[in-house]
UniProtKB/TrEMBL annotation:
GO MF annotations in UniProt: oxidoreductase activity
SUPFAM superfamilies, per the entry: NAD(P)-binding Rossmann-fold domains
Protein name (record): SDR family oxidoreductase
Keyword Oxidoreductase: yes
Source organism of the structure: Halobellus ruber
Protein keywords: Oxidoreductase
């Protein structure tokens, strides 16, 4: 099989949630492809410990900076997008930061509902809004790639609060694509399936038994959970010139989970 080899040597890429998991791998693959990468996260170090993403990119010969950001705070997103002006302005905005809170709709605390929606839905809405306005003001349209999920389409046990944020990401992506097309800005999303990261650590034992990893993985036609390495190239494709006629798309990278 041949390989795609996207190059981003003249581009500045922001990756939110870039310290760990999927975002870390996405940031590193953009770094390897020559982009200047702004890694935006609440924390510098990956969740399981280790070298911060921006340092790993620099160690590999790339250019990267860490910008402490809480995506649920619009002022932080504005400061982040402004930080990219030092490198010519953002060309690719990857709105990936997200969190998981499991639990039954019957007893979830209102603060938990508000927190997950402020990070996963509001963070992506304002990440898209601020980046798009900045591109329009600089007259330099680029690409926005959001992280959706199989949960954007499919409900799973005891995670209404999470699934509803990912449903929102799907419609933020589609609606923004519709509105921003006339400005030359493309907006797409990657919808990962079950990916081995530390996101799912908040699941209750009961939920783990009923619906979590084993059962989810069992129904993956390819027979295994995915890895960040499986998912990251989809972000580079959607951000690339080769995807120039692709907008409003949700690209599932799930080993076939959603066709089951
Ligand atoms: P992860 O927990 O490994 O990484 C998430 C990163 O986001 C962390 O570094 C965390 O610090 C950061 N983050 C959390 N809240 C933030 C905030 N308010 N502001 C800035 N950064 C914040 O998880 P992951 O699995 O890599 O998840 C990345 C994205 O992928 C999320 O949007 C998640 O919903 C989505 N996703 C994950 C899976 C999966 O199975 N792992 C499946 C589908 C979608």
């Amino acid at each position: 099989m041949g390989t795609l080899n996207p190059q981003f040597t003249d581009d500045t890429v922001i990756v939110t949630g870039g310290a760990s998991g999927i975002g870390r791998e996405v940031a590193q693959q953009f770094g390897d492809a020559g982009a200047t990468v702004l890694v935006a996260d609440l924390r510098e170090e990956p969740k399981g410990g280790g070298t911060p993403t921006h340092e790993a990119i620099a160690d590999a010969g790339g250019t990267a900076e860490f910008v402490e950001t809480d995506v649920s705070d619009r002022n932080d997103i504005t400061a982040l997008v402004e930080a990219a002006h030092d490198y010519g302005g953002v060309d690719v905005m990857v709105n990936n930061a997200g969190m998981f809170i499991g639990g039954s709709i019957l007893d979830l605390e209102p603060e938990e509902f508000e927190r997950i929606h402020s990070v996963n839905a509001k963070g992506i809405y304002f990440g898209t809004q601020v980046a798009a306005n900045d591109m329009i003001e600089r007259d330099d349209p680029g690409a926005i790639v959001n992280t959706a999920s199989i949960s954007s389409h499919y409900a799973q046990f005891e995670q209404v609060q999470y699934d509803s944020t990912k449903g929102a990401v799907r419609m933020i992506t589609r609606g923004a694509a519709l509105e921003l097309a006339e400005h030359g800005i493309r907006v797409n999303a990657v919808a990962p399936g079950q990916i081995a990261t530390e996101l799912n650590e908040g699941w209750s034992e009961e939920a783990m038994e009923k619906a979590a990893n084993d059962e989810l993985v069992k129904r993956v036609p390819q027979g295994r959970a995915g890895t960040p390495e499986d998912v990251a190239p989809a972000y580079l494709y959607l951000a690339s010139e080769e995807a120039g006629y692709v907008t409003g798309e949700l690209l599932f990278v799930d080993g076939g989970w959603q066709v089951f």
